[in-house]
Amino acid sequence: MDRTYRIHPAIGIARLGSSTKADGWFLGPEVPGQVFAGPFKDGPGSIKRQGARFRIFEYQGGVPVREIKAADAKITWKVHLVNRKAEGPVFPPSTPPKRRNPTVPAPDRWKLIIDAKEQQIDGVSAGPLPLKGEFLGKDVPLGDLRTDGDGRLIVLGGFGKSFSPAGLPLTGLFNNDGWCDDAADGPVSATVEIGGKKVDVDPAWVVVGPPDYAPAIDNVISLFDVIYEASYLKFGHVDPRLAAGHPSFTHHVFPFLQRAADVYWVYAQAGPHRPRRGGDFLEPGLLRLLSDADPNPASAAYKARNAVFRRLRPPLGGGGIEQNMPDLAADPPPTLPQYEVMALWATGRFDADWTGFPLAAPLESHAVPEQPLLLDRAGLDACAGRAFFPSIEAPRIVEVQKIYRSPLRIDPDVVPPGGITEGLAIPWQTDFLACGSNWWPAQRPSNVFRQKGTAEAWERGDWAAGVTDMVKQWALLGFVKQEPGPIRFVERERDLALAPVAPFAAETAEAGPAEPSAAEVAVAQLFQAYEEARARGDI
User: Fold this and answer.
1) Which of these, 8, 36, 300, 478, has the minimum number of CB atoms within 10 Å of its CB?
2) Residue that terminates a domain, selected from 158, 185, 209
3) CB 480 within 8 A of CB 266
4) Which candidate, 340, 95, 351, places its Cα nearest to that of 248?
5) What is the Cα Rg of the chain in Å?
6) Are 88 and 423 in contact (CB under 8 A)?
Protein backbone atom coordinates (compact mmCIF):
# COMPACT_ATOMS: atom_id res chain seq x y z
CA MET A 1 0.00 0.00 0.00
CA ASP A 2 1.28 3.47 -0.90
CA ARG A 3 2.72 5.40 2.00
CA THR A 4 2.89 9.18 1.92
CA TYR A 5 3.93 11.77 4.49
CA ARG A 6 2.49 15.19 5.23
CA ILE A 7 3.17 18.00 7.67
CA HIS A 8 0.21 19.25 9.71
CA PRO A 9 -1.18 21.77 10.28
CA ALA A 10 -1.07 22.61 6.58
CA ILE A 11 -1.00 26.28 7.64
CA GLY A 12 0.19 26.98 11.17
CA ILE A 13 -0.46 30.22 13.02
CA ALA A 14 2.07 31.86 15.33
CA ARG A 15 1.52 35.24 16.98
CA LEU A 16 3.69 38.16 17.98
CA GLY A 17 4.34 38.97 21.61
CA SER A 18 6.52 41.37 23.55
CA SER A 19 7.79 38.97 26.22
CA THR A 20 11.51 38.24 26.01
CA LYS A 21 11.50 35.68 28.82
CA ALA A 22 12.67 32.15 28.03
CA ASP A 23 9.26 30.75 28.95
CA GLY A 24 7.29 33.73 27.64
CA TRP A 25 5.33 31.76 25.07
CA PHE A 26 2.57 29.18 24.72
CA LEU A 27 1.31 26.79 22.06
CA GLY A 28 -1.59 27.82 19.85
CA PRO A 29 -4.76 25.71 19.56
CA GLU A 30 -4.35 22.19 18.16
CA VAL A 31 -8.04 21.26 18.14
CA PRO A 32 -10.93 23.61 17.32
CA GLY A 33 -12.15 25.47 20.38
CA GLN A 34 -8.97 24.92 22.39
CA VAL A 35 -7.99 28.12 24.20
CA PHE A 36 -4.85 28.83 26.20
CA ALA A 37 -5.90 29.24 29.84
CA GLY A 38 -3.53 32.13 30.40
CA PRO A 39 -2.19 34.32 31.70
CA PHE A 40 -1.39 35.94 28.36
CA LYS A 41 1.18 38.23 29.95
CA ASP A 42 4.12 37.53 32.23
CA GLY A 43 4.44 41.13 33.36
CA PRO A 44 3.13 44.62 32.58
CA GLY A 45 3.25 45.18 28.83
CA SER A 46 4.78 41.74 28.30
CA ILE A 47 2.54 39.62 26.05
CA LYS A 48 3.55 36.01 25.59
CA ARG A 49 4.19 34.85 22.05
CA GLN A 50 2.02 32.11 20.54
CA GLY A 51 3.88 29.21 18.96
CA ALA A 52 2.79 27.02 16.06
CA ARG A 53 3.65 23.33 16.45
CA PHE A 54 4.04 21.07 13.41
CA ARG A 55 3.84 17.29 13.19
CA ILE A 56 4.44 14.70 10.46
CA PHE A 57 1.83 12.05 9.67
CA GLU A 58 2.15 8.86 7.68
CA TYR A 59 -0.71 8.08 5.31
CA GLN A 60 -1.54 4.67 3.86
CA GLY A 61 -3.98 4.61 0.99
CA GLY A 62 -4.77 8.25 1.67
CA VAL A 63 -5.69 7.61 5.32
CA PRO A 64 -3.58 8.91 8.25
CA VAL A 65 -2.32 5.92 10.24
CA ARG A 66 0.32 7.30 12.61
CA GLU A 67 2.33 10.33 13.63
CA ILE A 68 6.04 10.14 12.86
CA LYS A 69 8.15 11.21 15.84
CA ALA A 70 11.86 11.41 16.57
CA ALA A 71 11.75 7.84 17.93
CA ASP A 72 10.52 6.62 14.54
CA ALA A 73 12.72 8.57 12.15
CA LYS A 74 15.49 11.08 11.71
CA ILE A 75 13.69 14.40 11.14
CA THR A 76 15.27 17.66 9.99
CA TRP A 77 12.98 20.66 9.84
CA LYS A 78 13.45 23.67 7.56
CA VAL A 79 11.68 27.03 7.87
CA HIS A 80 12.01 30.16 5.73
CA LEU A 81 10.37 33.22 7.33
CA VAL A 82 10.22 36.50 5.39
CA ASN A 83 8.55 39.89 5.75
CA ARG A 84 8.28 41.60 2.35
CA LYS A 85 5.63 44.20 3.19
CA ALA A 86 7.84 47.25 2.57
CA GLU A 87 8.72 45.99 -0.92
CA GLY A 88 5.16 44.99 -1.74
CA PRO A 89 2.27 46.73 -3.52
CA VAL A 90 0.39 49.61 -1.97
CA PHE A 91 -2.99 48.95 -0.42
CA PRO A 92 -5.64 49.45 -1.69
CA PRO A 93 -4.26 48.33 -5.07
CA SER A 94 -3.86 51.09 -7.62
CA THR A 95 -4.07 51.40 -11.40
CA PRO A 96 -1.39 51.34 -12.67
CA PRO A 97 0.12 49.20 -9.90
CA LYS A 98 2.33 51.01 -7.42
CA ARG A 99 4.72 49.69 -4.81
CA ARG A 100 5.54 50.89 -1.35
CA ASN A 101 8.73 52.89 -0.85
CA PRO A 102 8.84 54.04 -4.51
CA THR A 103 11.92 56.20 -3.93
CA VAL A 104 14.08 53.16 -3.18
CA PRO A 105 15.77 52.24 -6.50
CA ALA A 106 15.51 48.74 -7.96
CA PRO A 107 19.10 47.69 -7.08
CA ASP A 108 18.42 48.48 -3.40
CA ARG A 109 14.90 47.12 -2.99
CA TRP A 110 16.20 43.89 -1.52
CA LYS A 111 17.05 45.97 1.55
CA LEU A 112 13.29 46.37 2.14
CA ILE A 113 12.79 42.60 2.50
CA ILE A 114 13.36 41.15 5.98
CA ASP A 115 14.64 37.68 5.14
CA ALA A 116 15.63 35.24 7.88
CA LYS A 117 16.89 32.81 5.19
CA GLU A 118 16.05 29.13 5.34
CA GLN A 119 17.03 27.73 8.72
CA GLN A 120 17.01 24.13 9.88
CA ILE A 121 16.73 22.35 13.20
CA ASP A 122 16.63 18.71 14.28
CA GLY A 123 16.70 16.53 17.36
CA VAL A 124 14.54 16.65 20.47
CA SER A 125 14.11 19.61 22.82
CA ALA A 126 16.43 21.62 20.57
CA GLY A 127 16.70 25.39 20.24
CA PRO A 128 15.88 28.17 20.42
CA LEU A 129 17.40 28.89 17.01
CA PRO A 130 17.02 32.63 16.30
CA LEU A 131 15.46 33.86 13.04
CA LYS A 132 16.73 37.29 12.06
CA GLY A 133 16.72 39.56 9.03
CA GLU A 134 17.48 43.19 8.27
CA PHE A 135 15.46 46.20 7.17
CA LEU A 136 17.44 49.01 5.59
CA GLY A 137 20.50 47.80 7.46
CA LYS A 138 18.81 47.42 10.87
CA ASP A 139 18.41 44.02 12.55
CA VAL A 140 14.85 42.72 12.83
CA PRO A 141 14.24 39.48 14.81
CA LEU A 142 11.50 37.39 13.20
CA GLY A 143 11.33 34.75 15.93
CA ASP A 144 12.96 31.41 16.62
CA LEU A 145 12.69 27.65 16.07
CA ARG A 146 12.52 24.86 18.64
CA THR A 147 11.64 21.19 18.83
CA ASP A 148 9.70 19.44 21.57
CA GLY A 149 10.49 16.18 23.33
CA ASP A 150 9.19 14.14 20.38
CA GLY A 151 11.03 16.13 17.73
CA ARG A 152 8.02 18.12 16.58
CA LEU A 153 8.75 21.61 15.25
CA ILE A 154 7.70 24.75 17.15
CA VAL A 155 7.83 28.10 15.35
CA LEU A 156 7.71 31.29 17.41
CA GLY A 157 7.31 34.69 15.77
CA GLY A 158 8.79 38.07 16.58
CA PHE A 159 8.31 40.56 19.37
CA GLY A 160 5.93 43.10 17.82
CA LYS A 161 8.76 45.41 16.82
CA SER A 162 7.48 48.13 14.44
CA PHE A 163 9.76 51.05 13.66
CA SER A 164 11.27 53.41 11.10
CA PRO A 165 15.10 53.39 11.01
CA ALA A 166 15.03 57.01 9.88
CA GLY A 167 12.51 58.02 12.54
CA LEU A 168 9.80 58.87 9.99
CA PRO A 169 6.29 59.59 11.30
CA LEU A 170 3.28 57.40 10.57
CA THR A 171 1.25 59.06 7.83
CA GLY A 172 -1.39 56.53 6.74
CA LEU A 173 -3.55 53.59 7.67
CA PHE A 174 -2.08 50.94 5.37
CA ASN A 175 1.14 52.22 3.74
CA ASN A 176 3.92 53.91 5.71
CA ASP A 177 7.10 54.24 3.72
CA GLY A 178 10.30 53.79 5.68
CA TRP A 179 8.54 51.60 8.27
CA CYS A 180 8.68 47.89 8.99
CA ASP A 181 7.11 45.38 11.36
CA ASP A 182 7.93 41.76 12.18
CA ALA A 183 4.90 39.88 10.92
CA ALA A 184 6.08 37.16 8.52
CA ASP A 185 5.26 33.94 6.75
CA GLY A 186 6.91 31.18 4.77
CA PRO A 187 7.22 27.48 4.00
CA VAL A 188 7.83 24.69 6.50
CA SER A 189 9.46 21.55 5.12
CA ALA A 190 11.16 18.46 6.49
CA THR A 191 13.53 15.73 5.43
CA VAL A 192 12.63 12.42 6.99
CA GLU A 193 14.69 9.24 7.05
CA ILE A 194 12.92 6.06 8.15
CA GLY A 195 14.97 2.88 8.43
CA GLY A 196 17.82 4.48 6.52
CA LYS A 197 15.55 5.51 3.63
CA LYS A 198 14.57 9.10 2.87
CA VAL A 199 10.90 9.74 2.16
CA ASP A 200 9.17 12.71 0.54
CA VAL A 201 7.14 14.94 2.85
CA ASP A 202 4.38 17.32 1.77
CA PRO A 203 5.41 20.79 3.05
CA ALA A 204 3.33 23.19 5.11
CA TRP A 205 3.29 26.95 5.75
CA VAL A 206 3.49 29.19 8.80
CA VAL A 207 1.98 32.66 9.25
CA VAL A 208 3.01 35.00 12.07
CA GLY A 209 0.28 37.50 12.94
CA PRO A 210 -0.65 39.94 15.71
CA PRO A 211 -1.97 38.78 19.09
CA ASP A 212 -5.53 37.52 19.30
CA TYR A 213 -7.04 39.71 22.02
CA ALA A 214 -10.26 37.66 22.26
CA PRO A 215 -9.00 34.08 21.81
CA ALA A 216 -12.11 32.39 23.22
CA ILE A 217 -14.33 34.05 20.59
CA ASP A 218 -14.04 32.94 16.97
CA ASN A 219 -14.97 34.90 13.86
CA VAL A 220 -18.31 34.08 12.24
CA ILE A 221 -16.36 33.71 8.99
CA SER A 222 -12.93 32.45 9.97
CA LEU A 223 -9.78 32.15 7.90
CA PHE A 224 -10.34 28.40 7.86
CA ASP A 225 -13.77 28.93 6.30
CA VAL A 226 -12.30 31.07 3.52
CA ILE A 227 -9.38 28.74 2.80
CA TYR A 228 -11.67 25.71 2.96
CA GLU A 229 -13.94 27.37 0.38
CA ALA A 230 -11.01 27.98 -2.00
CA SER A 231 -9.88 24.37 -1.57
CA TYR A 232 -13.43 23.09 -1.98
CA LEU A 233 -13.88 24.97 -5.26
CA LYS A 234 -10.59 23.56 -6.60
CA PHE A 235 -10.41 20.07 -5.10
CA GLY A 236 -13.80 19.27 -3.55
CA HIS A 237 -14.66 18.70 0.09
CA VAL A 238 -11.91 17.78 2.54
CA ASP A 239 -14.27 17.04 5.42
CA PRO A 240 -15.81 13.57 4.82
CA ARG A 241 -19.05 14.50 6.59
CA LEU A 242 -19.57 17.46 4.30
CA ALA A 243 -18.64 15.35 1.29
CA ALA A 244 -21.46 13.00 2.29
CA GLY A 245 -23.90 15.93 2.44
CA HIS A 246 -24.86 15.21 6.02
CA PRO A 247 -23.24 17.68 8.44
CA SER A 248 -23.04 17.28 12.19
CA PHE A 249 -24.95 19.75 14.34
CA THR A 250 -22.24 19.65 17.00
CA HIS A 251 -19.24 20.03 14.69
CA HIS A 252 -20.59 22.08 11.77
CA VAL A 253 -23.77 23.97 12.67
CA PHE A 254 -23.26 24.81 16.33
CA PRO A 255 -19.90 26.58 15.82
CA PHE A 256 -21.57 28.99 13.38
CA LEU A 257 -24.40 29.73 15.83
CA GLN A 258 -22.02 30.01 18.78
CA ARG A 259 -19.81 32.54 17.01
CA ALA A 260 -22.82 34.67 16.11
CA ALA A 261 -23.97 34.69 19.74
CA ASP A 262 -20.52 35.24 21.26
CA VAL A 263 -19.68 38.26 19.10
CA TYR A 264 -21.92 40.42 21.30
CA TRP A 265 -19.27 40.34 24.02
CA VAL A 266 -16.75 42.13 21.79
CA TYR A 267 -19.21 44.08 19.62
CA ALA A 268 -22.09 45.33 21.76
CA GLN A 269 -24.03 46.59 18.75
CA ALA A 270 -24.85 42.93 18.12
CA GLY A 271 -27.50 43.44 20.79
CA PRO A 272 -30.04 40.92 19.39
CA HIS A 273 -27.55 38.17 20.28
CA ARG A 274 -27.15 39.23 23.89
CA PRO A 275 -28.35 36.85 26.63
CA ARG A 276 -32.08 36.33 26.88
CA ARG A 277 -32.72 38.01 23.54
CA GLY A 278 -34.19 36.31 20.47
CA GLY A 279 -30.79 35.82 18.84
CA ASP A 280 -29.15 34.19 21.86
CA PHE A 281 -28.62 30.82 20.19
CA LEU A 282 -27.00 29.50 23.37
CA GLU A 283 -30.21 29.84 25.41
CA PRO A 284 -31.06 26.22 26.38
CA GLY A 285 -34.65 26.26 25.16
CA LEU A 286 -33.81 27.73 21.77
CA LEU A 287 -30.76 25.50 21.43
CA ARG A 288 -32.94 22.41 21.94
CA LEU A 289 -35.10 23.51 19.01
CA LEU A 290 -32.16 24.40 16.77
CA SER A 291 -30.49 21.03 17.38
CA ASP A 292 -33.69 19.09 16.59
CA ALA A 293 -33.67 17.64 13.04
CA ASP A 294 -37.48 17.41 12.71
CA PRO A 295 -38.11 17.75 8.93
CA ASN A 296 -41.82 18.60 9.31
CA PRO A 297 -42.36 22.20 8.11
CA ALA A 298 -45.12 22.56 10.69
CA SER A 299 -42.86 21.68 13.62
CA ALA A 300 -41.44 24.27 16.00
CA ALA A 301 -37.90 23.01 15.32
CA TYR A 302 -38.24 23.42 11.55
CA LYS A 303 -39.63 26.93 11.95
CA ALA A 304 -36.86 27.93 14.37
CA ARG A 305 -34.12 26.64 12.07
CA ASN A 306 -35.55 28.39 9.04
CA ALA A 307 -36.06 31.65 10.92
CA VAL A 308 -32.28 31.73 11.32
CA PHE A 309 -31.43 30.51 7.83
CA ARG A 310 -33.65 33.11 6.17
CA ARG A 311 -31.48 35.86 7.68
CA LEU A 312 -28.27 34.71 6.01
CA ARG A 313 -26.90 36.48 2.95
CA PRO A 314 -26.67 34.12 -0.06
CA PRO A 315 -23.00 33.77 -1.08
CA LEU A 316 -23.76 34.31 -4.76
CA GLY A 317 -25.79 37.46 -4.22
CA GLY A 318 -29.48 38.20 -4.35
CA GLY A 319 -31.75 37.79 -1.38
CA GLY A 320 -34.16 40.15 0.31
CA ILE A 321 -33.72 43.01 2.73
CA GLU A 322 -33.97 40.70 5.76
CA GLN A 323 -31.05 38.57 4.53
CA ASN A 324 -28.46 40.77 6.20
CA MET A 325 -26.43 38.43 8.37
CA PRO A 326 -23.62 38.27 9.37
CA ASP A 327 -23.82 41.94 10.38
CA LEU A 328 -20.16 42.73 9.78
CA ALA A 329 -18.34 45.49 7.94
CA ALA A 330 -18.55 45.22 4.13
CA ASP A 331 -21.54 42.83 4.45
CA PRO A 332 -19.69 39.55 3.82
CA PRO A 333 -21.91 36.52 3.17
CA PRO A 334 -21.10 33.11 4.59
CA THR A 335 -18.78 31.00 2.46
CA LEU A 336 -20.34 28.51 0.06
CA PRO A 337 -19.59 25.51 2.33
CA GLN A 338 -20.96 27.38 5.35
CA TYR A 339 -24.14 28.27 3.47
CA GLU A 340 -24.56 24.70 2.21
CA VAL A 341 -24.26 23.40 5.77
CA MET A 342 -26.86 25.85 7.01
CA ALA A 343 -29.20 25.05 4.10
CA LEU A 344 -29.03 21.33 4.89
CA TRP A 345 -29.57 22.11 8.56
CA ALA A 346 -32.62 24.26 7.80
CA THR A 347 -34.35 21.35 6.06
CA GLY A 348 -33.41 18.82 8.75
CA ARG A 349 -30.71 16.94 6.81
CA PHE A 350 -28.06 16.80 9.52
CA ASP A 351 -26.92 14.56 12.36
CA ALA A 352 -28.84 15.56 15.49
CA ASP A 353 -25.86 14.62 17.63
CA TRP A 354 -26.11 17.37 20.24
CA THR A 355 -25.29 16.19 23.76
CA GLY A 356 -24.08 19.47 25.20
CA PHE A 357 -21.35 22.02 24.69
CA PRO A 358 -18.41 20.18 23.10
CA LEU A 359 -15.17 20.13 25.04
CA ALA A 360 -11.87 20.75 23.26
CA ALA A 361 -10.31 17.41 24.19
CA PRO A 362 -6.53 17.07 23.63
CA LEU A 363 -5.52 16.09 20.11
CA GLU A 364 -4.15 12.73 21.25
CA SER A 365 -7.60 11.72 22.56
CA HIS A 366 -8.92 11.71 18.98
CA ALA A 367 -8.44 8.84 16.56
CA VAL A 368 -5.36 9.27 14.37
CA PRO A 369 -7.37 9.58 11.12
CA GLU A 370 -9.16 12.61 12.61
CA GLN A 371 -6.06 14.41 13.89
CA PRO A 372 -4.70 16.06 10.70
CA LEU A 373 -7.92 17.90 9.85
CA LEU A 374 -8.33 18.97 13.47
CA LEU A 375 -4.82 20.43 13.40
CA ASP A 376 -5.47 22.13 10.06
CA ARG A 377 -8.64 23.72 11.33
CA ALA A 378 -7.68 24.72 14.88
CA GLY A 379 -5.29 27.59 14.21
CA LEU A 380 -7.14 28.96 11.19
CA ASP A 381 -10.48 28.93 13.00
CA ALA A 382 -8.96 31.42 15.43
CA CYS A 383 -8.08 33.84 12.59
CA ALA A 384 -10.10 36.54 10.85
CA GLY A 385 -11.73 35.67 7.54
CA ARG A 386 -13.90 37.96 5.45
CA ALA A 387 -14.12 40.87 4.98
CA PHE A 388 -10.59 41.52 3.77
CA PHE A 389 -9.42 45.13 3.96
CA PRO A 390 -6.68 44.11 4.11
CA SER A 391 -7.11 41.93 7.27
CA ILE A 392 -5.22 40.76 10.35
CA GLU A 393 -3.39 37.49 9.70
CA ALA A 394 -3.77 37.12 5.92
CA PRO A 395 -5.34 39.25 3.15
CA ARG A 396 -7.47 38.43 0.11
CA ILE A 397 -4.76 36.31 -1.55
CA VAL A 398 -6.03 33.31 0.42
CA GLU A 399 -9.19 33.35 -1.75
CA VAL A 400 -7.11 32.70 -4.88
CA GLN A 401 -7.39 29.02 -5.81
CA LYS A 402 -4.14 28.82 -7.77
CA ILE A 403 -2.01 29.33 -4.64
CA TYR A 404 -3.00 25.88 -3.31
CA ARG A 405 -1.15 22.72 -4.37
CA SER A 406 -3.60 20.46 -2.52
CA PRO A 407 -6.49 21.02 -0.09
CA LEU A 408 -5.63 23.73 2.47
CA ARG A 409 -1.95 23.59 1.43
CA ILE A 410 -0.10 26.59 -0.06
CA ASP A 411 2.11 25.90 -3.09
CA PRO A 412 5.68 27.16 -2.43
CA ASP A 413 6.27 27.19 -6.20
CA VAL A 414 3.54 29.84 -6.54
CA VAL A 415 3.83 31.86 -3.32
CA PRO A 416 7.27 33.13 -2.23
CA PRO A 417 8.23 33.28 1.44
CA GLY A 418 6.51 36.37 2.83
CA GLY A 419 3.97 36.34 0.01
CA ILE A 420 0.92 35.86 2.24
CA THR A 421 1.46 38.70 4.72
CA GLU A 422 2.92 41.02 2.05
CA GLY A 423 -0.44 42.67 1.36
CA LEU A 424 -1.22 43.57 4.98
CA ALA A 425 -0.87 47.01 6.56
CA ILE A 426 2.57 48.28 7.47
CA PRO A 427 2.88 48.42 10.40
CA TRP A 428 0.09 46.09 11.47
CA GLN A 429 -0.90 48.35 14.39
CA THR A 430 -2.26 51.10 12.11
CA ASP A 431 -4.91 48.90 10.51
CA PHE A 432 -5.54 47.22 13.84
CA LEU A 433 -6.55 50.55 15.34
CA ALA A 434 -8.41 51.94 12.32
CA CYS A 435 -10.58 48.89 11.70
CA GLY A 436 -12.52 48.96 14.94
CA SER A 437 -16.28 48.55 15.17
CA ASN A 438 -17.50 45.50 13.25
CA TRP A 439 -14.58 44.51 11.03
CA TRP A 440 -12.94 41.73 13.06
CA PRO A 441 -14.27 42.10 16.62
CA ALA A 442 -13.36 38.53 17.56
CA GLN A 443 -9.72 39.41 16.92
CA ARG A 444 -9.57 43.06 17.82
CA PRO A 445 -12.50 43.85 20.14
CA SER A 446 -14.63 46.89 19.49
CA ASN A 447 -15.74 46.92 23.09
CA VAL A 448 -15.27 44.78 26.17
CA PHE A 449 -17.01 44.08 29.45
CA ARG A 450 -15.54 44.31 32.91
CA GLN A 451 -17.06 43.49 36.27
CA LYS A 452 -20.25 45.55 36.16
CA GLY A 453 -21.53 44.41 32.79
CA THR A 454 -21.18 47.74 31.02
CA ALA A 455 -19.57 47.68 27.60
CA GLU A 456 -16.58 49.98 27.19
CA ALA A 457 -14.35 50.75 24.23
CA TRP A 458 -11.43 48.31 24.13
CA GLU A 459 -8.84 50.99 23.26
CA ARG A 460 -10.21 53.38 25.88
CA GLY A 461 -8.11 55.09 28.52
CA ASP A 462 -5.68 57.91 29.10
CA TRP A 463 -4.07 57.78 25.70
CA ALA A 464 -4.82 59.60 22.48
CA ALA A 465 -5.80 56.39 20.69
CA GLY A 466 -3.79 57.41 17.65
CA VAL A 467 -1.73 55.12 15.45
CA THR A 468 1.51 56.15 17.15
CA ASP A 469 -0.02 55.24 20.50
CA MET A 470 -1.04 51.82 19.18
CA VAL A 471 2.50 51.13 17.95
CA LYS A 472 3.85 52.01 21.38
CA GLN A 473 1.12 50.59 23.62
CA TRP A 474 -0.33 47.53 21.85
CA ALA A 475 1.13 45.28 24.55
CA LEU A 476 -0.70 47.18 27.31
CA LEU A 477 -4.20 46.35 26.08
CA GLY A 478 -6.36 43.71 27.72
CA PHE A 479 -7.44 40.21 26.70
CA VAL A 480 -11.03 38.99 26.64
CA LYS A 481 -11.34 35.74 28.59
CA GLN A 482 -14.26 33.40 29.18
CA GLU A 483 -15.38 33.21 32.79
CA PRO A 484 -18.36 31.65 34.60
CA GLY A 485 -21.27 33.91 35.41
CA PRO A 486 -23.82 36.08 33.60
CA ILE A 487 -21.04 37.99 31.82
CA ARG A 488 -19.61 35.24 29.66
CA PHE A 489 -16.51 37.10 28.51
CA VAL A 490 -14.59 39.62 30.61
CA GLU A 491 -11.56 41.81 29.90
CA ARG A 492 -8.51 40.89 31.95
CA GLU A 493 -4.76 41.66 32.06
CA ARG A 494 -5.14 45.28 30.97
CA ASP A 495 -2.20 47.55 31.85
CA LEU A 496 -3.37 50.94 30.65
CA ALA A 497 -4.79 53.28 33.27
CA LEU A 498 -8.54 53.53 32.82
CA ALA A 499 -10.11 56.90 32.25
CA PRO A 500 -13.81 57.36 33.16
CA VAL A 501 -16.04 56.34 30.28
CA ALA A 502 -19.75 56.59 29.63
CA PRO A 503 -21.76 53.38 29.12
CA PHE A 504 -21.49 52.13 25.58
CA ALA A 505 -24.45 53.41 23.55
CA ALA A 506 -25.46 50.01 22.22
CA GLU A 507 -25.94 48.64 25.73
CA THR A 508 -29.63 49.56 25.59
CA ALA A 509 -31.96 48.11 23.01
CA GLU A 510 -33.20 51.58 22.08
CA ALA A 511 -29.77 53.08 21.47
CA GLY A 512 -28.47 53.69 18.00
CA PRO A 513 -24.98 52.79 16.82
CA ALA A 514 -22.03 54.62 18.32
CA GLU A 515 -20.47 57.42 16.30
CA PRO A 516 -17.64 56.06 14.13
CA SER A 517 -14.16 57.43 14.62
CA ALA A 518 -12.43 59.47 11.93
CA ALA A 519 -10.25 56.46 11.13
CA GLU A 520 -13.30 54.21 10.76
CA VAL A 521 -14.94 56.73 8.41
CA ALA A 522 -11.76 56.85 6.32
CA VAL A 523 -11.60 53.05 6.15
CA ALA A 524 -15.25 52.85 5.07
CA GLN A 525 -14.68 55.40 2.30
CA LEU A 526 -11.55 53.61 1.10
CA PHE A 527 -13.34 50.27 1.11
CA GLN A 528 -16.22 51.65 -0.97
CA ALA A 529 -13.78 53.06 -3.53
CA TYR A 530 -11.88 49.77 -3.53
CA GLU A 531 -14.98 47.68 -4.19
CA GLU A 532 -16.11 50.06 -6.96
CA ALA A 533 -12.70 49.74 -8.62
CA ARG A 534 -12.88 45.94 -8.38
CA ALA A 535 -16.37 45.96 -9.90
CA ARG A 536 -15.08 48.03 -12.84
CA GLY A 537 -12.17 45.65 -13.30
CA ASP A 538 -9.62 48.37 -12.61
CA ILE A 539 -7.82 46.23 -10.02
Assistant:
1) 300
2) 209
3) yes
4) 351
5) 23
6) yes
